[in-house]
Amino acid sequence: MIELLKKAVRWEIALWVSLYRLTFRRPIPMEAGAKSFGYVRPVAPVLGVFIVVSAIDIVAVDLALNHFLPDWGWLRIVALILGTWGLLWMIGLAANLVTHRHLVGPSGLRVRNSHTLDLALPWHTVATVRAQSRYLTESDTVQRDKDVVSIAMSSLTAIDVVFREPITLDLPKGREEDVTELRFHTDTPEELVAYARTFLPDPVKA
């Protein structure tokens, strides 16, 4: 129970920090020479619908309470506060994905998924990076099939990272050992691959 509460608090803080960064244009610092790549396009329509519905819901609930319970002004205030919090939470969820982007830079590749996943992959561990669109039949964000780990966005991946030798990945649900390939999604796979290959010390053709 305590761990669950801690996780909820961390989520809440992360969402508000991301909302602040997006609102005031304060991106997460990155090393010189690095470029960032987004991955939210597959889920953007769904997030947009939830945000719009949340905004409409605030107005609808307020009108309903004013009509059916005109003397309960305190309830309208409570509903307005909860509705506004819910709307900002949804926007913060989107901001969390937008601000925690994949990074490609001199020190390596960083694969992210909101604030919950941040994998640093030094270039000396990478054999090759290639663009390859895949659709996964399962809906889990993090999936493993034999020695391949996939970080999916709406069941999609677009990048294959093949390692020179099996490595261990620290994932949200625990450590995954003997991983030979990592797959993840980005909205601009060709651009990410082109920039990544400028840093590979001795790329292996695959």
TrEMBL record:
TM segment ranges: 43-65, 77-98
Keywords attached to this entry: Membrane, Transmembrane, Transmembrane helix
Keyword Transmembrane helix: yes
Keyword Membrane: yes
Protein name: PH domain-containing protein
Superkingdom as given in the UniProt entry: Bacteria
